[in-house]
Amino acid sequence: MLTRVTRTLVATAVILAAVGGLLGAVLGRDPGAGGLDGALLGLAVALAVGVHLLVRSAAGRGVEASSPEAAEDSVERRVWVAASSATFVDAVSVLVLVALLGLWAEGPLLRWLPLAGLAVVLADLGVRVRRGWRRQVGDGA
Amino acid sequence: MRSRVRELRSAAGLTQADLAARVAVSRRTIISIEQGRFDPSLPLAFRLARALGTRVDELFIPDDDGDQAVDVRSDEGVA
Q: Where is the HTH cro/C1-type domain (chain B) (predicted)?
């Protein structure tokens, strides 16, 4: 168990360093951004990627992952997978819309546009999970 | 799709939790199948049939597709 955790941590650290280094090098060369800004941004993104990978890895190996509810044939898992699959298509559309609007947006709108997109996707996922749950499990179960 | 899971489970003296543990799913999954809200995957249907000592086609009964499938086969045979 410890070996697997160590392996995950090492892999995460390597990815983090690689992504951070790459982003820092690319952004640091941008005439619009200072070298330090580029490196800091690269490090921030790499940290986010690292945390994401760690949480995902830990979730896949935790007690919850081996519970009956997480079994492939369980209704809980099927509701979640169906909702996630449907939300993915919507999320791509929202991402495209945010990217297109971002080309013309300025000021505060540009700052809040990605957050608004994220809120829409999360709300979409919540509604789909709730609808799937009510259809396949019911309210009283 | 209708199922005889509740009937055969009761006849076997199993609780929903017992059956769920035997086929490695949650108890809520068994409840949803018995209520006809949730159609199980093919592997789960086979596990349920084995746990209840029966066959899949005796455990799950299609609402109306069964007759159509037979019609299609007979049409192909004629052609």
A: 5-59
> The domain that contains B51 carries what CATH number?
1.10.260.40
Give the nearest chain A residue to B24 (CA atoms).
Answer: A68
User: pLDDT per residue over A32-57, tens digit each?
Assistant: 555 566 667 767 777 777 787 777 77
DSSP code, position B39: P
Which range marks the domain in which residue B17 is found? 2-78
Domain count, chain B: 1
- Nearest chain B CA: its distance from A137 CA (Å): 6
Angle between helices B27-34 and B16-23 (to 10 degrees): 110
What DSSP assignment string belongs to A89-140? HHHHHHHHHHHHHHHH--THHHHHHHHHHHHHHHHHHHHHHHHHHHHHT-S-
Contact B40 A73 (CB under 8 A): yes
Contact B29 A73 (CB under 8 A): yes
Interface pTM, i.e. ipTM? 0.73
Structure tokens at B38: 């949730």
B31 CB neighbours in chain A (<8 A) are 137, 141
Is A71 in CB contact (< 8 Å) with chain B?
yes
Q: Tell me which residue of B35, B39, B2 sits closest to A139, measured CA to CA.
A: B35
